[in-house]
Amino acid sequence: MFTERFLRDKRGASLTAAERARLEAAISEVRTYKPRKIIAKAGEPLDQSTLLIEGFMCRYLDDRSGLRQLVAIHVPGDFLDLHAFPLKVLDHDVATLTGATAAIVPHSELEAIADEMPELTRKLWFSTLLDAAIHRAWLFRLGRLDANARVAHFLCETNARLVSAGLSDGRRFALGLTQADVAEICGLTTVHVNRVMRQLREDGLCVFRSSLVEILDLARLTALGQFNPAYLYIDDDANPLPSVQRPRS
Question: Do the domain assignments include residue 233?
Fold first, then answer.
C-alpha cells in the first residue's frame, strides 16, 4: 500500500480504511527518481501533487550566487507539495536528496475527493498545516539557536518524524544526507557542521556516520536543541520522545 505511512501516527487525523483506499485509488502512477534530481521548479504550472513513498526530498531556494537554502525536507509518508493543489505553482524548487519513489496524485482526483469525502479533505488540509508548523519550528531554529543546538534540533525533529513513519526505533535511523545538506538546512558551513558533529560525538550525544544516525543520549540531545515535539502532532502513545520547556531569557 503506497499510502501506509501518510498520517500514520498523527493526533486526530489518522486515515480510516475507506479513506486510505480512496487515496490509493487516486494515485495515477508511481515514479522512481535518482538522487539530486529536480522534480518541480518554481513558477512552473502543476496539475498534480506528490506523495513520498521512499527516500528523502527537499524544498529549497537559491540566492543570487546559486547557493541554496533548504527550507524543508520530506520523509516517507509526506505529501510534499499538496499546497500546489490550490496554488497551481510553487515559489520554490523541489528535488530529491536521495534516490526516491513517489506516488503521483492528479489535482483532478483531489477535486473529486473534496466533493466525495469532506473528512478526508480535512485530513489532507491537516497535512498541509503540519508542513506550516514545521516551517515555524525551522524559523525558530535558525533565528534563536546556536550551531550545536540547530543541528541537535534538526536531528531530534527528523528522528521524531521517522518514528511516526515507522522508520526509526527512537534512537537509530538511516539519514541519506551529507554534512553539506545539514549545513544548508541549518544555515551553517560544511566545516562548521563537521565541528558540531564531532562535538556531539565527543559529548556522548549522537553519532552520524555512513548515513546512519545513532542517538546516544536522547534526553540531553533534546535539551540541547530545545526540541519540543508538540508541533509535529504525533499521537502520545506513538511518541517516545521527551518534551522540554524552552528556558526563559
Answer: yes
Answer whether 234's CB lies under 8 Å from 164's CB: yes
Q: Vertex 153, ends 152 and 155: CA angle to 5°?
A: 65
In the numeric block, the cell 534538526 is attached to 154
Q: Are residues 161 and 213 in the same domain?
A: yes
Per-residue confidence at 68, pLDDT binned at 50, 70, 90?
A: confident
Which candidate, 146, 156, 82, 89, places its Cα nearest to that of 120? 82
Beta strand ranges found along 134-194 (DSSP E) = 172-174
Q: What are the Cα distances from residue 76, in Å, to 64, 105, 219?
A: 31, 15, 25
State phi, psi for 80 to the nearest 5 degrees: -80, -20
Q: Do 184 and 152 lie in a common domain? A: yes
- C-alpha span between 241 and 221 (Å, rounded): 11
Does one domain contain both 66 and 98?
yes
One domain for residues 161 and 78: no
103 and 152 within one domain = no
Rounded CA separation 93/41 (Å):
4
Residue 10 lies in a domain: no
Identity of the residue numbered 116:
E
Q: What is the pTM of this model?
A: 0.92
pLDDT in tens, 127-172: 999 999 999 999 999 999 999 999 999 999 999 999 999 999 999 9
In this structure, are strands 93-96 and 172-174 parallel, antiparallel, or unpaired? unpaired
